[in-house]
Design brief:
The protein has 221 residues and is mainly β. The chain is built from 1 helix and 15 strands, in the order H-E-E-E-E-E-E-E-E-E-E-E-E-E-E-E. The chain has one helix at 2-29; strands spanning 30-31, 46-51, 56-68, 71-82, 91-92, 97-102, 105-109, 129-133, 136-137, 141-142, 151-164, 167-178, 181-191, 195-203, 206-216. Strands 2, 3, 4, 5, 6, 7, 8, 10, 11, 12, 13, 14 and 15 form a 13-stranded antiparallel beta sheet that branches. The radius of gyration is 22 Å and the shape is globular.
């Protein structure tokens, strides 16, 4: 009886050892869980970026939140200034982007043309792009825009190590391609819980990189 029990126990351990490589492999191919925030969207959260070949400083800050179709949408406003200028010299780029986490996607949308913008009264968002999916699976490809099926995003890495002036980050890599423009790629390195830390744009023979140089997060709302 004791020998039979030991044999059964040995079989259990053997089965665990046999399955462990599969379990480990599965753990390596996915990242994130439902409800996880890819980009924290609390009011006041700020990201500052700089390109590798210019002196322009770009600041992105969450400056508003409204309910649209019962979902909270956050206004991400962008500014630019020269490197030697103080933050007070920031110029509003006028490209207000609205972000929301819906059904596992970080969705983005712009205000429809001619919509009033005073205190966000009468806000009407344009078609939403489901740009950043999270959680993600390594190698998956999806199309963020229903109106433009040529654009595709592929997850090329789940744990890419990226170091910028803002620190060292463990990133998911989102690579955008366009079917009718083979010389173009847009690659975002996104640290879950922080946001975009590096973006690399390739257009033909030209490459442009923008990296996070600092960020500040407000307390959770």
């Amino acid at each position: 009886m004791k020998h039979a029990a030991l044999t059964a126990l040995s079989l259990v351990f053997a089965l665990i050892l046999a399955l462990s490589p599969v379990i480990a492999e599965d753990a390596k191919t996915t990242r994130g869980e439902a409800g996880d925030a890819l980009t924290p969207l609390a009011m006041g959260n700020t990201w500052v970026y700089q390109g590798d070949s210019d002196t322009i400083i770009t600041t992105e800050r969450v400056e508003g939140v409204v309910l649209f179709d019962k979902q909270p949408w956050h206004l991400l406003r962008s500014y630019e200034r020269e490197q030697e200028e103080p933050a007070e010299k920031n110029i509003d780029l006028g490209t207000d982007l609205w972000l929301a986490m819906i059904d596992g996607y970080e969705c983005d949308a712009f205000i429809e043309p001619n919509a009033p913008d005073d205190a966000f009264t009468g806000l009407k968002l344009g078609p939403a792009s489901k740009y950043f999916r999270y959680p993600v699976t390594l190698g998956e490809t999806y199309r963020p825009n229903q109106d433009d099926r040529a654009i595709a995003i592929t997850i090329t890495a789940l744990h890419e190590k990226v170091t910028t002036k803002a620190g060292a980050f463990d990133c998911v890599v989102y690579r955008e391609t366009i079917a009718d423009d083979p010389g173009y790629t847009l690659t975002h390195y996104v640290a879950p819980g922080v946001g975009i830390v590096k973006t690399v744009t390739v257009e033909g023979d030209e490459t442009y990189t923008s990296s996070l140089i600092s960020y500040t997060f407000a307390k959770d709302e």
